Amino acid sequence: MSSDEIKIKNIVIDDEGNYIRTLIMGDPSLPKLVLVHGYGGSGVLLYRIFKDLSQHFNLITIDLLGMGSSSRPPFLCETGE
Questions:
Q1: How far apart are CA 43 and CA 41, in angstroms?
Q2: Domain assignment of residue 22, given as a range
Q3: H helices then E strands: how many in the chain?
Q4: If I label 46, which of 5, 29, 59, 78 is the partner at 20 to 30 A Cα–Cα?
Q5: In-domain check, residue 51
Q6: H or E stretch at 9
Q7: Is the pLDDT confidence value at 1 over 80?
Q8: pLDDT tens per residue across span 19-70
Q9: What is the model's pTM?
Q10: In this model, does residue 2 exceed pLDDT 70?
């Protein structure tokens, strides 16, 4: 993988097949930096800084469960407690 290539990987997190979408960029031998977007967002919102950060880090962004390109399992909470 070249240093400016983005690798997309879905990480399965349970037996139902739910997954977290990850975007990985940069040299794997560099220190890892994980970016997490804000509520209702997506890791792609941070794309403008991917190339610069990937020169110094093995950059990993994740889409939180239910947001971005991650899976959207049913929300079964019946109370706010």
A1: 7
A2: 7-62
A3: 1, 4
A4: 29
A5: yes
A6: strand 7-12
A7: no
A8: 999 999 999 999 999 999 888 778 777 878 888 999 999 999 999 888 888 9
A9: 0.78
A10: no
Q: How far apart are CA 66 and CA 78, in angstroms?
A: 17
Amino acid at 52: D
Sheet holding 19-25, edge to edge: 7-12, 19-25, 58-62, 32-36
Contact 62, 71 (CB under 8 A): no
Q: Number of folded domains in the chain?
A: 1
Do the Cβ atoms of 51 and 26 come closer than 8 Å? Answer: no
Cβ count near 3 (within 10 Å): 12
Cα(70)–Cα(21) distance, rounded to whole angstroms?
Answer: 5
What is the secondary structure of 50-71 as a DSSP string?
Answer: HHHHHTTSEEEEEPPTTSTTS-
d(C-alpha 27, C-alpha 58), whole Å: 5
